Amino acid sequence: MRVLFAGTPAVAVPSLDALIAAGFEIVAVLTRPDAPIGRKRVLTPSPVAARAAELGIDLIHATRVDEAVTAKIAAAKPDVAAIVAYGGLIPRPALDVPPHGWINLHFSLLPAWRGAAPVQRAVMAGDDVTGAVTFLLEEGLDTGPVFGTLTEGVGPEDTAGALLERLSHSGAVLLAQTLSAVEAGRAAAQPQAGDVSLAPKLTIDDGRLDWKQPALAIGRRARGVTPEPGAWTTLDGQRVKLEPVRLRPGDTDLQPGAVFLDGKSVLVGTGSHAVELTRIQPSGKKMMAAADWARGMATLESVVFE
User: Fold this and answer.
1) Is 244 among the annotated ligand-binding positions?
2) Is 99 marked as a binding-site residue?
3) Adjacent-strand bridge partners of 274
4) In this predicted model, what pLDDT tens digit does every residue of 136-161 receive, in sequence order?
């Protein structure tokens, strides 16, 4: 079966590899254009584009699937399109090109967490279980009928990045299985059922920690925004980046935002009990162990995160 693959970030690469390993013919890869990366803003191909180039697969670069891009997709004559985190909407004219439609691998248990950041929102909400589904893409936001489902437990220290990495590999297997079922005429998509929740794209503001919130909520937020956009707070008006924190339920005497060095542990007060910092990146410096940062502060007793 001839497959158009659409995807952009690193989490989509395992799916591309899985489809090739399963014997599908990848006729073209649709991905977003090269983007400036790093402090020097060097134009860099997307991870999917880089992998497709290694494999000698034709690339279609597009930020928006317009009439010209749709014509390129049609020229590739795909039987089906597989899409994993492409990063753009697919309009009706393009949806109608492949006879078997577009099959989307989405990293949530739809209809929970429809949108761009399902894994991050699941971690931030404290979900114990998440997963991935394959579904038939429609014009609505992740509304199409579901072909296949897998579940994945969310561990107490899982970051969004770690969870998404696991799902990218198990989901790749699910996507290959779904396309095999479509090719064999055995696929039967079922309408979504259950409560709908939305997972809008994260912004920098989503990473700000509010020390007046309970420690559990702060811990979930920090894990949910790791690695991107990252957790942060402010100190003396400067942004300070933080890696995920640990809960310290036995320490309840610190005011929200107040910092205290307890032996080798750096504690911060919250709206409930304290949390322990793991690593911290002060403004203009590199990420370092929290204890090393604390030892470099002249008067830690007066330090209060805002």
Assistant:
1) no
2) no
3) 248
4) 999 999 999 999 999 999 999 999 99
* 110 annotated among ligand-binding-site residues: yes
Q: Binding site annotation covers 30?
A: no
**Cis ω before 282 (30° cut-off from 0):** no
Q: With a cut of 70, list the residues of the chain below it in pLDDT.
A: 298-302
Find out whether 232 and 260 touch, Cβ atoms under 8 Å. Answer: no
CA distances to 12, 31, 220, 240, 254 from 216, rounded to whole Å, are 31, 38, 6, 20, 15
Tell whether pTM > 0.90. Answer: yes
Residue type for 255, please?
Answer: Q
Identify whether 227 is preceded by a cis peptide bond (ω within 30 of 0). yes
The whole-angstrom separation of Cα 264 and Cα 266 is: 7
